[in-house]
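Every protein is a chain of amino acids, and every chain bends into a shape of its own. The fold becomes a row of whole numbers, each drawn from a learned catalogue of backbone shapes. The protein below has been through that process, and both of its lines are reproduced in full.
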Amino acid sequence: MGEHRHGDPDTPGTVERAGDDSGNFAIENPGLPPHRPRITDEDPRAAKRAERQVSFLFILSILGTILFFVGYFGVGQLPADETDMNLIRLQNTLLGLGTAFAMLGIGVGIVQWGRALMPDHEWVEERESVTTEEDRADAVNIINDVVDETQIKRRPLLRNTLIGALAIAPLPAIAMFRDLDNTRNHSDDPAENFGVERMRHTVWDTGTRLVRDVSGTPIKASDVTIGSALHVVPDGLLDMEHDMLNQKAKAVVLLMRLNPDDMQISAGREDWHVDGIVAYSKICTHVGCPIALYEQHTHHLLCPCHQSTYDLTQECKVIFGPASHPLPQLPISVDNDGYLVAQSDFQEPVGPVYWERDPRPAEERGA
């Protein structure tokens, strides 16, 4: 019988300890693996070839950005009807390929630069706090060493092509974001071409008939039944030769009818409906998705993107979801022939609440 050892929390006798104060370890530190030089480390011609490859990728990024602008400004400015699908497909193809080449050229180029040309030695260095001027100077020297290791100073072809690619790569995004808020409005007033003022006005006007989307059929009040929901646009919008899609995106509304006894009407809106027939903007005030579902039994309008829910009986007040503002209401009435018409434009900006809204009527705002 061998000696039986009874351990304790400090010396159980059954497990080898990883180390002790003397610096002895049960498993020795294997250290870093030996460095294996790459072909570009030993052959200058291979290094030069890799440099040309990386520069080609950066140049490809530059060409991709140029291709984007050809599609965006070149094809996009050709005189053609907005329903010309061949032209739209060509533009979308150029935009997609241009963006892909612009981004991939920079990304793949930097990866190849690091794999083939930048030093790949591994080392372990203890982190020290920077507390003295000498330590700060050492930190600056480390940064300079890193810059030297990238070889960006002694490889001007890489440096110049990278700078060129990075300089123009953001321009497509700037152009697109700029046009999100400045799309072919021909007003002489700069305030009408930018910001909330442009979203405050649509093609709805006094006496404009409400017509069904796609068919363009005018709507009589007697044809709208309780519980129905119609997609409606201004009369004449579908016949516009220019800017129809942009104007439709702002002007489209949902037309519904409910029991007037169920409606909670605020002061000043008593005559904005026709015997329970109401019209509200179809554009969600969260991020601009189209409202897609009307629940007749609950009188709720739902946005499919982020589940914002509006209560029709409370003038489309938000009762659930991330939207923070009710849907703008279009004041409507009936003309002499019994057709539904707009009393005016919307009294507040439509679309996402990106800007501060002024809920006052146009005459009170001085608009």
